[in-house]
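hey so i finally got around to running the thing on that chain from the lab meeting. sorry it took forever, my laptop kept dying and i had to restart like 3 times. anyway pasting the input first so we r on the same page abt which one it is
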Amino acid sequence: MEKLAGNIALLTDGKRTLAALLAGAFAVLIQAPFDFIFAGFVSFPILVWLLDGAAPSVSAGLLGKFKPAFVTGWWFGFGYFLAGMWWVGSALTVESQTYAWALPFAIVGLPLVLALYFGLATALARLLWSDGIGRIAALGAAFALAEWLRGTLLTGFPWNPIGFGLMPVPVLMQSVGIVSDIGMNALAVFVFAMPALLGGKRHRASGIALAAVLLAAHVAYGFKSLSTPEPTGSTLNVRIVQPNIDLTEKWDSSVRDRIFNTEIGLSQRPPEKGKAKPTLIIWPETSIPFIFQDYPEGLRRMGDMLGEGQLLLAGVARTEGTGDSTLYYNSIVAIDGKGEVINAFDKVHLVPFGEYMPFEWVFEKLGINQFVAGPMNFIPGARRNPMPVPGNFAALPYICYEIIFPNLMFNEAPESSFILNVTNDAWFGNTPGPYQHLRQAQIRAVESGLPLVRAANTGISAVIDPKGRVLDALAINMQGYIDATITVSPQAYSAPFPNRTLNGIAVTLALALLAVIMSLYRKFRI
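ok and heres what got predicted. didnt touch it at all, straight out
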């Protein structure tokens, strides 16, 4: 192993670049739908050994001292994001004759940018590098900081964080309720990189033992959490409708009635044997194939569809104003049996380039109004408001990729009974994207201690309990519905460790402190 570590550390030029790129690409296997956790124990030791050989020249200036480690981490990150997010380009193929030119920017451009965060992580870690466990701790702390920045800067994009690699199944998801995503990112890199110690002489036994103890505690807490009975509460009967609408027809007025009739029909079907009549019916994101002003009859039909005491929560493109001053919102509306909209939530965190154009004035000069197929650019809502539903409960609404932001939920979950996630993952077909999106929803349920109901146009629709377990689901590209009874309580927020973010920061600081101590010890010893 020492010989292998030495050979990797001594790689130069193209061989070093290729090794970093392939190691990053292989690391993607820790994410859904592969969930091959052992890939992390291969990729991150290789990254450590590459960084061992990324020492700057003696004459390098300030930036030059960072460059070798930054470049190594950047290539690792480029491989990771290219292999893990190539499917984003699928959104541009819905109207390929119009948007195919932008495919390289989506498939390659996004990884080029996101890789900067991994480059930052490795450059910071190299400042505290040592020849033992200290460098592993430095890498874990630096990645935690970089992943936090990735989820925060420029509206954030925390997709496939490294910490998810230690949470492929519910029993391994429970620790996120203690240390948050920040702590899980730090611990995941720390544990994954620990086998790199086998390539040296220092801290072999103690490092591997520490990793084993951390993993054992991670698993033990998971089993303990899953074996703890859920608190009793009231129940809510829901129906999740998955209409499986083809995106090429989504806004085609000639097939509007067919799409609408499909959704009405699925909602009106009697419950399966042994299932209760739903009190709450849920349609996916932008599932209503018209603007209310253009088809007022639609509201009446939805009201007629609903029985006594039933409520429909449906995704819709909502408008305000008229003519050139019309504003469009990606919304969830609550419709009662009278065919009246009694509540609405407008999506707060919009998708850059998908739902709105950042730096719009620049792209307008180039004649570009949007990058993906759709009828309009959206305006963000002002705030997230829990939506009352029958039974004195409140649904906390998240539209599409809003569910990937853990910080959004931290202050909002206490006011709610369950999480509602409506989405339209049809943009990405049967690729890893929808599976990774579902994994994000599972983690949010564990973090919040709330059940989660997810309605997706083409899948994966699901009912998820507060422990992240998928209780029922509909597969991708399947048309149908789920009837489920979820147990909720008013003000049901029950996250086991409300201070989990502080705990995660503490874990990161502890690793950083260990790195500092070992770095100083190394210098003193030398």
